[in-house]
Design a protein that fits this description.
Number of strands: 0
Strand content: under 5%
């Protein structure tokens, strides 16, 4: 079920009313309702894949119980590996089987050997990368004795399948979200209102920014051979805001929806395009995934400890694995490698923890130095997104070759000048709003503290009208990260 669908517009109020008016006196029934609602929400797409979520839930629940009983380290490791193998086994099969088969065959063909085997027609379950990592965080943290194993299967099933963030995050840690299912919840009007503000802003970013940018980005990338460097860079710029509006918009809707039910999800985006270097960008972009890889992969590898070669190795591992997590294509690996190269000078010069505070912390506008840093970081990010969006490595190479030649200085070929200018104006509006609220969790966060009622409602109405008038009319467009 899509957030931006009529089905969800009916589903959410029904679940909300049942949750707060029918089952409000029973925590266990509220949790059970969340499980049922989450399975309906996911099964709306394809009910057959509910078995994967249920099986993963059962495995990790039972592994957690065994880890709680077992004292011997070697046996605890066996139980942990059972969870890791099962979860990554499912993920590897559905997401990477054909990729490895095709590249295995290509490698042997290069040396003159033909290896048999046919690619399978595998349907990638929506959100499998997200809920797999979420449930793995539970077993890893129980193994590390950072939390006690749960005895409440309903609460655990609700944690794994919680519908607001089930298919595209944030990827919640068990230490943060699971305990919230143990505590009784009372409706908080102020929290719910702020959640509605975040939902409204999330829909603006998805329906106005992302979906309209997608129209132009797809046109340019799908016909890249017909355009010069300036137009291709413009296409990359549209995709840069498409993926941000789409993914951070989903996170805003998910976090806001969770607040309606009394839950607090982690912040997943912190205005990343205002970053002054790539290290800061990765502290602000898809925070739940970045911190997951940091805590469960990067630090166990040694992190920034050890000699320089180990530090460089760890940086490339973490970025390439992060890229590969996004999809079974060499373009994602290239995207990860580019970000590793961007990050490397900061690591070698010990500048990777330099920009920790919000930009222009004590002023309205950035300094010239900060503006230059933001500009350079943004351009590097746009160029990296080319690899992410390209269909193949050669496609990415063709686009880069066109951008880095004299055609970059030509006038972009606007296929719909009026349409593209309107989208650029909408992007500017989004940037302005997010700059104003850059010290908060999202644009519109606690807007009542700055604006009196009439002006506040004028802003709400403006955003709502922009959504109504500028949303794409040819059906509901899926969120980009559903494919990951």
């Amino acid at each position: 079920m899509l957030f931006n669908s009529f089905d969800f517009a009916i589903f959410l109020p029904v679940v909300f009313l049942l949750y707060w008016f029918v089952f409000k006196h029973s925590l266990r029934l509220q949790n059970a309702l969340i499980v049922v609602a989450s399975y309906v929400f996911y099964g709306w797409w394809d009910w057959r894949f509910l078995s994967l979520i249920l099986f993963s839930t059962l495995v990790d629940f039972l592994v957690g119980k065994q880890l709680g009983k077992e004292a011997k380290d070697n046996k605890r490791r066996l139980w942990l590996w059972l969870s890791v193998v099962v979860n990554l086994g499912f993920l590897g099969f559905f997401k990477y089987f054909n990729f490895f088969l095709e590249n295995f065959q290509a490698a042997f063909s290069f040396f003159g050997f033909e290896i048999g085997g046919r690619a399978l027609s595998i349907v990638l379950p929506v959100g499998i990368s997200f809920y797999t990592f979420q449930t793995m965080s539970y077993t890893i943290d129980v193994y590390r004795r950072r939390m006690e194993p749960t005895k409440d299967f309903i609460a655990f099933a609700a944690f794994v399948s919680f519908f607001p963030q089930l298919v595209a995050g944030p990827i919640e840690r068990a230490t943060h979200l699971l305990p919230q299912f143990y505590r009784s919840r009372k409706f908080n009007y102020a929290l719910a209102v702020n959640g509605c503000r975040q939902i409204l802003w999330g829909f603006f970013k998805k329906l106005v920014i992302a979906d309209n940018c997608a129209e132009f980005a797809n046109q340019i990338f799908n016909n890249s051979e017909a355009y010069g460097g300036s137009t291709l860079f413009l296409g990359a710029l549209f995709f840069t805001f498409q993926i941000y509006g789409d993914f951070s918009g989903y996170s805003d809707i998910a976090i806001g929806t969770s607040r309606l039910f009394g839950f607090d999800l982690m912040k997943n985006f912190a205005f990343p395009y205002f970053s002054r270097d790539i290290a800061e960008f990765w502290r602000r972009w898809h925070i739940s995934l970045s911190t997951w890889f940091r805590d469960y992969v990067y630090i166990p590898l040694g992190g920034s400890r050890g000699n320089r070669w180990k530090q460089i190795r760890n940086v490339f591992i973490i970025f390439i694995v992060s890229g590969f997590w996004h999809g079974a294509n060499w373009t994602f690996i290239l995207w990860g490698a580019l970000n590793a190269l961007y990050f490397l000078p900061l690591l070698l010069l010990n500048l990777n923890r330099y920009n920790l505070e919000v930009v222009a912390q004590k002023s309205v506008l950035p300094s010239l130095k900060e503006l230059a840093q933001i500009g350079i970081t943004f351009v590097l990010t746009v160029l990296a997104w080319v690899a992410f969006r390209a269909e193949t490595i050669s496609h990415a190479g063709q686009i880069y070759a066109a951008i880095f030649n004299l055609s970059f200085f030509s006038i972009p070929a606007f296929d719909s000048l009026k349409g593209e200018m309107v989208v650029l104006i909408m992007i500017s509006f989004m940037i302005g709003m997010e700059w104003i609220y850059r010290k908060r969790n999202f644009a519109l966060d606690n807007i009542h503290e700055q604006l009196i009622g009439a002006f506040r409602w004028a802003v709400y109405c403006l955003i709502f009208l922009l959504i109504v008038f500028f949303r794409q009319m040819e059906g509901n467009i899926e969120f980009i990260y559903f494919q990951f």
